[in-house]
């Protein structure tokens, strides 16, 4: 159930052991199945890329910049598709779209294993951009928000907890497979895993999703053009858009350039790898904290706190460049903030704005954010090249992350004036 927070703020989720009245059947088994599919989708498509980069570079002779450009193209395509995919899931549910995305991802991973042409490689990643947009967090968040309107935050938190282990599972798995079998055979195995796990979940567990959304839509018809005109006039939307775009740029540039930055400072490789390894567990730990204390952490408060952690970690790295303890502290701050930020992003629209057209609005927010995520590492590299070092990059990222925090604080403050307080939900019958 949800209870109304003090002061008319967004409702806070309280986890029940039984489905709340009026929610979709399936409950926690459906959430866990969808979470496993997210883990596999992230692991096979996104996290495998960094592991396979070096063996591809060695065999094919392509430059590292050229190979990374394909990933940037995929992320840009995913951003461009985000609004249309969100609107589709709003209207027709996620079953067909996410099933098609799983099949497409598996086919393109298999095709990637056979590539000899850089042009074909870029075409494959353009297709994988669509597949990522159709299968990763955004459509899954829409599905859970529509099916479980009274407890979607708790369910999204569990989904991101499981999916947050994707790098922990698939980076070493991909490395072991690539070392023993080669990168081409590894991609074929990843394609088979994706198809065997994700397609059954999306095709079978999401049965009735379209019927659910048609029922909701017939009860509360939404004119998409009118909705987006209303969104464009809402300052909360623009605050969230600025926040998520600035945050995505900072996150992407920081994670890509962290190890080169530490090498420039003379940090031993073992210590640098250990610091990076802390980020994944810290993400999971942050989400566990949100899950356990969701009663006391409405979205507005959680976002305000967590968006201060990223500039704090960057400031620590600037202020204490040679301290190993500070490096590990900054990695924990950064990882936990990023883990919690995924939950804030999923709940910001329904909590700070409204739920109608959630998929379309979330897609509109994702477009500039994913474009920034794709382009920010290149921008950071240009700043490094012009300035001759990473200090200028860190100061730039500190400024951008501060803008993200200020934008969210403004959006949260404005939401109390532009969005009427939500009605408290009745407790579930026991």
Which secondary structure elements does this structure contain, and how are they paired or packed?
Blueprint: E1 2-3, E2 12-13, H1 27-60, H2 64-92, H3 95-112, H4 118-135, H5 137-147, H6 152-163, H7 166-181, H8 183-205, H9 209-219, H10 224-232, H11 235-264, H12 269-292, H13 299-319, H14 324-352, H15 358-387, H16 391-418
Antiparallel strand pairs: 1-2
How would you describe this protein?
- The chain is built from 16 helices and 2 strands.
- The protein has 430 residues and is mainly α.
- It has 2 domains: 25-216, Growth Hormone, Chain: A, CATH 1.20.1250; 224-420, MFS general substrate transporter like domains (Growth Hormone, Chain: A, Up-down Bundle).
- Mean pLDDT is 81; it is low at 1-21, 213-219 and 419-430.
- The chain has helices at 27-60, 64-92, 95-112, 118-135, 137-147, 152-163, 166-181, 183-205, 209-219, 224-232, 235-264, 269-292, 299-319, 324-352, 358-387, 391-418; strands spanning 2-3, 12-13.
- The longest helix has 34 residues, at 27-60.
- A hairpin with an 8-residue loop joins strand 1 (2-3) and strand 2.
